[in-house]
Specification:
By secondary structure, this protein is mainly alpha-helical. It is 47% helix and 0% strand. It has a single domain, classed as Orthogonal Bundle (Cytochrome Bc1 Complex, Chain D, domain 2), CATH 1.10.760.10.
Length: 129
């Protein structure tokens, strides 16, 4: 437990934390991963299941409304909406620690796919005036 706490503190103190919002991670996704089909794409319950996973695993960084919390990026962007399910699944699986995004590979594969459905269901954030 202490190692996890230290890792989180080190991660959160990094000047590059959550720079994943610049989209550079998309360049790292292999083509075969980009085109992977989501087995839950037509499952009406997948969005609700993904919402539960989001509340348990993602809220602490990205916020209840998924608008981000300072450095963590909003997930209600055209970049997220434009990413394929395969690309989001790859990011959830591999993370991007250099930019503050941890790997969620410990989540079962089905849950990562459900989370991608939830992320795509989020409405786009309104432009700030």
């Amino acid at each position: 437990m202490r190692r996890r706490l230290v890792a989180v503190v080190v991660l959160l103190s990094s000047p590059f934390v959550f720079a994943v919002s610049d989209g550079s991670w998309l360049k790292q996704v292999p083509t075969k991963e980009r085109v992977r089909a989501n087995p839950y794409a037509q499952d009406g319950d997948a969005v609700a299941a993904g919402a539960l996973i989001y509340r348990r695993s993602c809220v602490s960084c990205h916020g209840t409304d998924a608008d981000g919390r300072g450095k963590p990026p909003s997930l209600r962007t055209t970049r997220v909406h434009g990413a394929s399910d395969g690309e989001l699944f790859w990011l959830l699986t591999n993370g991007n620690l250099a930019h503050g995004m941890p790997s969620w590979s410990r989540l079962p594969e089905a849950q990562r796919w459900q989370l991608t459905r939830y992320l795509h269901s989020l409405p786009l954030a309104e432009a700030k005036k």
